[in-house]
Amino acid sequence: MRVKVACVGGGPAGLYLSILLKRQDPSHDITVYERNPEGSTYGWGVTYWSGLLDQLRAYDPESAQAVDEHSVRWSDGVARVRDLTTTQPGDEGHGIGRHRLLKILAERARTLGVRLEFEHDVTADDLPDADLIVAADGVNSALRSRHADHFGADLAPGRNQYIWLGTSKVFGSFTFAFVETDHGWIWCYGYAFGPEGSTCVIECAPETWTGLGLDTAPEADGLALLEKLFADLLDGHSLIGRSSADGSAQWLNFRTLTNRTWHRDNLVLLGDAAHTTHYSIGAGTTLALEDAIALADALREHTSLPQALAAYEQRRKAALLSIQSAARYSAQWYENLQRYIDLPPHRMFALLGQRHSPLLPYVPPQVYYGIDKAAGSLEPLRRFKRWLGPKVARTVHARALATRKQAPGGSERASASAPGELG
Hints:
Elements: E1 4-8, H1 12-24, E2 29-34, E3 45-49, H2 50-59, H3 61-69, E4 72-81, E5 84-97, H4 98-112, E6 115-118, E7 132-135, H5 142-146, H6 148-151, E8 154-167, E9 174-181, E10 184-194, E11 197-204, H7 206-211, H8 219-229, H9 231-234, E12 239-240, E13 251-258, E14 263-264, E15 267-269, H10 284-301, H11 305-335, H12 345-353, H13 365-375, H14 379-406
Parallel strand pairs: 1-2, 1-7, 2-6, 4-9, 7-15
Antiparallel strand pairs: 3-5, 4-5, 8-11, 8-12, 8-13, 9-10, 10-11, 14-15
């Protein structure tokens, strides 16, 4: 049956959904609306892991091959703490320029017959005539905000400040650098996205941000200070701002977005409009593309639109539970950096790799390191750790929710936020 679909938002989620729906039935009438000009995008590179590439190959080999060919790879992680450096092997990671990824998906969508309308801003008061309207318009989704009470959007703010920058330095590994200043620690995540450069995400506690004057410094002065602080990491290369859609590099406070429900009549949320997870787990792009896969599957498997949208929401909410938990603990690890930073670098880096653990915040770091090392060779201890971690997490999370509900004003409604995840 021919279906007319309007996808509002030309990011990875919206473009990939249009590709999948056209592959399922070329007769579908699909239009992607994007308010920005073609080729303009904020950000530098995104990260993903081999599991995503396997999924892309299964659903659309042509675009998967292009993504693979234009990606860079790494397997080691490097951490610099003061003047010490440690390296640890890890899973193979991939990086690709956001601009390159969007170009690949847009070209593939056009080849399949999808209409792409750039510089076309769709508002909640002027929706296209379609059987299905997909809100893929980001964390500040205007389509979702129009029905805020129905969707039940909630924003949980993080503590730290971060900024998303680029550099011409090409990192050979996923690189962390932690620098101590008179006002506290500031750190960087760096990863290559192509032969032309890398992404640098710089983060610090709010008191460090204000103490260094980064809260009031003009962009050029702020970049100069950051280049000085991370001079050893950058090897003479500069940091590049101008990463956001409005032409400026902004310090942001990450907010984790959740929604009580993801659909209303023929309107459904996709990608960052439905959820965000902290950028430190590098899953944003993966989750957006997996949303598109799940929605396309549900629309193929169910002839009734309400059933399809309900099945999509149920599947994705279930899949996100463990990822959202990992992201929450990852963010907290950095917010409590002082707890780990004075460990020997190889131990600190080992616990950095364990930052998703619900046990880590409640066990002294040195003790946890010893338990984790022993668990690697003792199966009973490994099983006990796997059992205890989720039990502690559920208890702590339930208490946190109860505290939030009792607090004056209840939850914070979505109105404005930072761009979505960096991954």
